[in-house]
Specification:
Layout (H helix, E strand, L loop, with lengths): L5 E2 L24 H10 L5 H9 L3 E8 L7 E7 L4 H8 L3 E4 L2 E3 L7 H12 L4 H8 L9 E4 L5 H7 E10 L10 E8 L2 E5 L9 E5 L4 E4 L6 E5 L7 E5 L3 H15 L5 E3 L20 E3 L28 E3 L20 E3 L20 E3 L20 E3 L20 E3 L7 E3 H5 L6 E3 L7 E3 L11 E3 L7 E4 L7 E3 L7 E5 L5 E3 L7 E5 L7 E3 L11 H4 L5 E3 L20 E3 L19 E3 L12 H4 L5 E3 L23 E3 L21 E3 L10 H5 L6 E3 L20 E3 L19 E3 L20 E3 L10 H7 L4 E3 L15 E8 L8 E9 L4 E8 L5 H18 L5 H16 L2 H4 L1 E11 L8 E8 L3 E6 L2 E4 L9 H9 L20 E2 L12 E6 L4 E7 L1 H6 L2 H8 L5 H14 L6 E8 L30 E4 L18 E3 L49 E3 L4 E3 L19 E4 L2 E4 L3 E3 L4 H7 L12 E4 ...
Parallel strand pairs: 2-6, 14-15, 15-16, 16-17, 17-18, 18-19, 20-22, 21-23, 22-24, 24-26, 25-27, 26-28, 27-29, 28-30, 30-31, 31-32, 32-33, 33-34, 34-35, 35-36, 36-37, 37-38, 38-39, 39-40, 40-41, 60-63
Antiparallel strand pairs: 1-6, 2-3, 4-5, 4-6, 7-8, 7-13, 8-9, 9-10, 11-12, 12-13, 42-52, 43-44, 44-45, 45-46, 45-49, 46-50, 47-48, 47-51, 51-52, 53-54, 53-60, 55-59, 56-58, 57-58, 61-62
EC number: 3.1.3.16
GO biological process, one term: apoptotic process
Cofactor: Mn(2+)
């Protein structure tokens, strides 16, 4: 009757970016195919259907895709939690749903809505009503989808078989006997099958084995191929195809088969429910891959096509049935006598039948990822079995049957439930050499006898619960892994020890006896060791020694005398000095960063002539040792990192002793100059970082360094633009936070230049030609022009951010910063890290702010709206989120909704390794959590879902984070649900940092906070963090956002607030709601907006629109303002007592706030008039788009004041002017035009952060220095009121506004009202209120 299939992994997607100021969601898909057909082929739920669903929580909607147009046509089907697949199928003829990445048939009694709801609850949604709403969204199909019938997939169907009726000819082309005939031709498995008669269902089939054969083009005939088998009995068939597409498809598939050396067929991930009948023609098949299908021993299927028929493959050696959800062991495989390799991993098996004992030839038996607790004794009959995989099952002890499997030399039992390791059991298995017991819960080893266990040579006990480990009993041990336990002491036998891995424990004592003469690798980093054992110097083959992140004060005096030592990692200790005995040293890599070194050994660089890499960053070095005492030098040093020391100019001449230097980092030292003659000698230099010094110039002799591709010199005092643009290989130049005033460029930019950062240079002036040239660079950063001072209280927060690309110059991170988020009372910051992919961070950056704005309309609970934002983002990633993923951290500052006059709340949410830390009282307060395998609850959850954790600690070998956005094919092991933490901001909170994985892998939270605590500028602080991370060894992409806080005691507002709600305290440039305005043509004079002649249009940010950030990507935010936000009773008179956060503001006066509005001009495409020599202040351009920094806000007044003074417009209204649109969906909102506001604003610094401003009542200052233009120009505001200037009123407000205007005119005729007494001292005497527009005349 019915069919059904289900998937928790996307196949068609949508990442919406919506248009703002609309309650309805207008989504846009990134999947082009979906985009073209979506609106045409999607049946939308009708409002009546939605009402029916919402009436009861037991109801819902599933979206069903057409089987042949899976990604384009879907139909909503209303049902309840009790509706079965059979009932839905009866309506739709057939039903299907995708699961994982493959499609499975739903049983008739399964309940689609219940399956969908369970999936959404698993993702992290908490409320049934929310799950119900998500289910009604058609985009849910990119996470879980249903199909009417089995979906048709060209890719997988090609792999199962190709078939068709074609013209066929057998034998040699020269023979006239063989004529062309129309025949059924099938390619399935490794054979070409041709029917002997026209009716392919009767008569025998001709089979042509293709392995080792060949396929060739036949040029005499169009679309013709010749297929030949191999061997002395070779046969040839000529086939003419009807179309070129079919010809190519057959050529491609047959070429793959013919090129194989073994008879192998791969039918993995094909959604197979049974075996293709034609597969059995391939009788010589030796390797068959059926991984990730839905094969069953289903009696209702024809017997010839079930798993029972696998025994027909009499030569089969390798069979992969993993991930088939079998539930029971497939007994049929026991009857395949030739089988040597069998994989039945991840099939939810609870037992292995005794019948497996008959598989005498089996050599590899994989049972990983099941629910096995025991093995049958009959397994001992598998005499040839050499590998038995039992990882990630439910074993609590080592199965006894392994004693009899003498050919098995490796015990693979990682991820089980063993709490104790009984060495007695291992003693009975002398054939076991390699023991893998990682990711169990072993707390102790129980040794019943004192005899040595001589047969174990490799022991892996990673990620267990061991407190101490006496491994002396393993007297022949060669490799020991015991990372991430809780070891305090470790004793090992050293006779044959080759490698020791013991990082991330609590070790204070390490004993190896006797001296390990074969030891070549030793990692004891991240412990509590206070000294290095003396035997390390005697270990004659030790090449790599990692003792980083301990508490070591001194290294053994003879350590460098060990002639075999190549790599010493001793960073993050407490070393005051290094050993000075350097005879015969062969060290190539030396890392001693983060110690207490005052100097390096004076003969280090002369004696260590093999040294290629030296990192001595974060010490207290004041000088460097010389590389040579003569003219000649033997130095081969290539990488030198000396960041964060106290080095002075005296050190620079010593660098010339290293002529092969390629990378030089000397940031954050005390350099005041870099002599030109010394720079000229570093001819092989490729990357130089001199940031955070006091350099006034970079020497012009950098021109001699022809290989330089990266110059980083931010946070100096550089006044002259260096000659870096002449370098042929230059890719990245960072000169931010300097004192540049101009830029000198060659006629043509360097061909490889990708990044130029000039932000934070307040005196920098670029002419139009230079700007136009620089805009061609892929990543060009410069300050937005300053918009001048305006009145307001000090800013509560300001930010700076930076991004740096990692390997292969790919920028796989992105940052989000919205200082005025959602009606200007909030802020939003984010950092996104895609690890190695660029797509996901970009999508997160473009979309997450809009989703959060929308979620804020649905709930005010911090955890709820943050969690829902991340889960909805999972859906919005669409197709990109199937195979790719990304870490994310979001920080949202908002006002306490319960107490409008109270403090600000900072809410942080993160997945992956992006994290936030808050500096409170100078101490770090982490607000994030990194969910990885070391989290006990995460490991337990992943084990339950039977995911395989590979040896590098990654889920199925893909990601080490168990909570991350994307990677939907790893559901339910990998989840998008974030960790959420909220704190109330206090005056003790100084700043907070958001950083990507690369930042936190290189810096501890304590160090990050300490590093930037005294950096006054947020941009410079972010830059410093990035530079430090790179000098400390980070090679990944890095992003850092630093948000400086200035929360005063007054944040806890003491105002008397009216009962109906009041205006919350402000953030930088924060204003209470005004009305959404679109300037169409001519503004009224008082509004201080562009004149009608300029031909400009701009949407002005307000309460009803979302953040300025979303202007490019649109916004999914609903425009319902929070309750009380539009209250008309907010006090606005100076006579009322106000706190610092609610300053008095002029009624009817406009305030100017920093935002970015895009203007398009009919007169010019470059922002310049023909007469203008210089670009206009406040205008910057990119190609044909002219951007002007402008945002106009108004101050709030009482209703009475509004009626008297607001709409001073003539009654004869034409149809031009300003459009005032209020929210049509909220009947409770005031319908009167409201131009009032009260708040503080800040001036944006050159680096994009916001700085406190002077208090001023002239809210829009007269910009006298900006060029004005005659009518037809840009910024001429009319000097006198123009009778044509007026408002365009939306129909629903028309009657109300007419009433106000009529009342206003009557009052004017009777008498001119005097200004309120509070306003008189603030205005020049000769200005009356009706002349206020002239007073605020401005070129903007």
């Amino acid at each position: 009757s019915s069919a059904a299939t289900a998937s928790h992994s996307p196949s068609a997607a949508g990442l919406p970016a919506s248009c703002s100021a609309s309650a309805s969601l207008c989504t846009r898909s990134l999947d082009r195919k979906t985009l073209l057909l979506k609106h045409r082929q999607t049946l939308q739920l009708q409002p009546s259907d939605r009402d029916w669903v919402r009436h009861q929580l037991q109801r819902g909607c599933v979206h069903v895709f057409d089987r042949h147009m899976a990604s384009t046509y879907l139909r909503p089907v209303l049902c309840t939690l009790d509706t079965t697949a059979g009932e839905v199928a009866a309506c739709l003829l057939q039903l299907g749903q995708l699961h994982g990445e493959t499609t499975r048939r739903l049983e008739a009694e399964e309940k689609p809505l219940q399956i969908q709801n369970d999936y959404l609850f698993q993702l992290g949604f908490g409320e049934l009503w929310r799950v119900q709403e998500e289910g009604m969204d058609s985009e849910i199909g990119c996470l879980i989808r249903f199909y009417a019938g089995k979906p048709h997939s060209t890719g997988s169907s090609e792999r199962i078989q190709l078939s068709g009726m074609y013209n066929v000819r057998k034998g040699k082309m020269q023979l006239p006997v063989n004529r062309w005939t129309r025949r059924q031709v099938i390619l399935c498995g490794t054979c070409l099958i041709v029917s002997s008669v026209k009716d392919s269902l009767t008569g025998k089939m001709h089979v042509l084995p293709l392995i080792g054969g060949k396929v060739e083009e036949v040029k005499k005939h169009q679309h013709c191929l010749a297929f030949s088998s191999s061997g002395p009995q070779s046969q040839t068939y000529y086939i003419c195809f009807d179309t070129f597409t079919e010809y190519l498809r057959w050529l491609r598939q047959v070429s793959k088969v013919a090129s194989q050396r073994i008879s192998s067929v791969d039918l993995s991930c094909c959604s197979l429910e049974h075996l293709p009948a034609n597969l059995f023609y391939s009788q010589d098949l030796t390797h068959l891959n059926l991984k990730q299908n839905f094969l069953r021993q289903n009696p209702s299927l024809p017997a010839a096509r079930g798993l029972n028929e696998l025994q027909r493959f009499t030569k089969l050696k390798s069979l992969n049935l993993s991930n088939n959800h079998l539930g029971d062991f497939p007994l049929a495989v026991c009857s395949i006598p030739t089988l040597a390799e069998l994989n039945v991993s991840c099939n939810a098996l609870r037992s292995v039948p005794a019948a497996v004992g008959v598989m005498h030839n089996l050599q590899t038996f994989l049972l990983d990822g099941n629910f096995l607790q025991s093995l049958p004794a009959e397994l001992e009959n598998m005499k040839q079995l050499s590998y038995l995989g039992l990882s990630f099952n439910e074993f609590t002890d080592i199965p006894e049957v392994l004693e009899k499997l003498t050919a098995v030399d490796k015990l693979c039992m990682s991820g089980n439930c063993m709490e104790t390791l009984r060495l007695q059991a291992l003693r009975k298995m002398p054939h076991i050499k390699h023991v893998d017991l990682r990711l169990n819960i072993i707390r102790k080893l129980i040794a019943d006898e004192v005899d040595f266990l001589q047969h174990v040579t490799q022991l892996d006990l990673r990620d267990n619960k061991l407190g101490d480990l006496d491994a002396m009993i393993f007297n022949n041990i060669e490799v020991l892994h015991c990372e991430r336990n809780q070891l305090v002491t470790l004793d090992i036998c050293g006779y044959f020890l080759k490698a020791l891995y013991a990082s991330s424990n609590e070790l204070v004592q390490l004993d190896v006896y006797p001296v390990p003469n074969y030891l070549s690798y030793m990692d004891v980093s991240r412990n509590r060791l206070e000294n290095v054992p003396e035997w390390v110097c005697e270990s004659r083959k030790l090449e790599v020694l990692d003792i980083g992140h301990n508490q070591i004060c001194e290294l053994p005096a003879r350590l460098f005398c060990n002639s075999s030592l190549r790599k010493l990692l001793a960073g993050h200790n407490q070393l005051a000095r290094l050993p000075e005995r350097l005879e015969r040293t062969s060290v190539e890599v030396l890392d001693v960063q983060h110690n207490q070194l005052l100097e390096l050994p004076p003969n280090l660089l002369m004696k260590a002539d093999s040294l290629r890499f030296l990192n001595a960053s974060a010490n207290k070095l004041e000088s460097l040792p010389p590389a040579t005492l003569s003219e000649e030098t033997n130095s081969i040093l290539q990488e030198l990192y000396l960041t964060n020391n106290s080095l002075t100019d005296k050190c620079v001449p010593l660098l010339t002793g290293h002529p092969h230097l390629k990378i030089l980092h000397m940031a954050y030292n005390r350099l005041q100059s870099f002599p030109a003659s010394k720079m000229a000698k570093l001819e092989e230099l490729e990357e130089i970082d001199l940031s955070g010094n006091k350099l006034k110039a970079i020497p012009t002799t950098i021109m001699n360094c022809r290989r330089v591709h990266t110059v980083i010199a931010h946070s100096n005092c550089i006044e002259v633009f260096p000659e870096v643009m002449q370098l042929p290989e230059i890719k990245c130049v960072d000169l931010s936070c300097n004192e540049l005033s101009e830029v000198t460029l060659p006629e043509n930019l360097p061909p490889k230049l990708q990044e130029l950062d000039l932000t934070g240079n307040p005196r920098l002036v670029l002419d139009h030609k230079t700007l136009e040239l620089l805009n061609n660079i892929r990543c060009f950063k410069i300050d937005q022009p300053s918009t001048g001072d305006a009145s307001g209280a000090p800013a509560v927060w300001s930010h700076g951010y930076t991004e740096a690309s990692g390997v292969k110059n790919k920028l796989c991170v992105a940052a989000l910063s919205v200082n005025n988020f959602c009606d200007n009372r909030e802020a939003l910051y984010g950092v996104f890290d895609g690890d190695r992919n660029v797509e996901v961070p970009y999508l997160l950056q473009c979309t997450m702010s809009d989703i959060l704005a929308e979620e804020l309309q649905k709930t005010k609970n911090e955890e709820e709206y943050m969690v829902n934002t991340f889960i909805v983002m999972q859906r919005k990633l669409g197709t990109a989120g199937q195979k790719l993923g990304g870490a994310a951290v979001l920080c949202h500052i908002k006002h306490d909704p319960v107490d409008p006059g109270g403090s600000f709340t900072l809410t942080s949410a993160n997945v992956g390794k992006c994290q936030t830390v808050l500096c409170r009282n100078g101490k770090p307060l982490p607000l994030s959590r990194s969910y990885i395998m070391s989290c006990e609850e995460e490991l337990k959850r992943i084990k339950q879902h039977k995911a395989i954790i590979t040896e590098d600690g990654k889920v199925n070998g893909v990601t080490e984070s168990t909570r991350i956005l994307g990677y939907t094919f790893l559901h339910p092991s990998v989840m998008p649900r974030p960790h959420v933490q909220s704190v109330l901001l206090t005056p003790q909170d100084e700043f907070f940092i958001l950083g990507s994985k690369g930042l936190w892998d290189s810096l501890s939270v304590e160090e990050a906070v300490e590093a930037v605590r005294n950096v006054p500028d947020a941009l410079a602080a972010a830059k410093k963090l990035c530079t430090l991370a790179q000098s400390y060894g980070c090679h990944d992409s890095i992003s850092a956002v630093v948000v400086q806080l200035s929360v005063t005691e007054d944040s806890f507002c003491c105002c008397e607030l009216s009962a109906s709600g009041a205006v919350p305290p402000p953030s930088p440039g924060i204003f209470p709601p005004s009305v959404n305005m679109v300037i169409k043509d001519r503004p009224s004079d008082g509004l201080g907006v562009p004149s009608s002649s300029s031909g400009m249009a701009s949407e002005i940010s307000s309460e009803l629109s979302t953040s300025e950030m979303s202007s490019e990507v649109g916004s999914t935010a609903s425009d319902e303002p929070p309750p009380g936000a539009l209250s008309e009773n907010s006090p606005a008179y100076p006579s009322e007592q106000r706190c610092m956060l609610h300053p008095v503001c002029l009624s009817n006066s406009f305030q100017r706030q920093l935002s970015s509005a895009t203007f398009s001009s009919a007169f010019s495409d470059n922002g310049l008039d023909s007469d203008d020599e210089e670009p206009i202040e406040g205008v910057f351009t990119n190609g044909s788009r002219v951007e002007v920094e402008v945002d106009i806000h108004c101050s709030r007044a009482k209703e009475k004041e509004k009626q008297q003074h607001l709409l001073q417009v003539p009654a004869e209204a034409s149809d031009e002017g300003i459009v005032i649109s209020a929210n049509e969906d909220e009947p409770g909102l005031p319908r009167k035009a409201d131009f009032s506001a009260v708040g503080t604003i800040g001036r944006r610094r050159a680096n994009g952060s916001v700085a406190p401003q002077e208090r001023s009542h002239n809210v829009i200052e007269v910009a006298t220095d900006a060029p004005l233009r005659k009518p037809g120009g840009y910024f001429a505001a009319p000097a006198q009121p123009d009778p044509d200037d007026q408002f365009i009123i939306p129909p629903e407000l028309e009657e109300e506004v007419k009433e106000i205007m009529k009342h206003h005119q009557e009052q004017q005729q009777q008498q001119q009202p005097p200004p309120p007494p509070q306003l008189q001292p603030q205005l020049p005497r000769h200005y009356q209120l009706d002349q206020l527009p002239d007073y605020y005349d401005t070129p903007l």
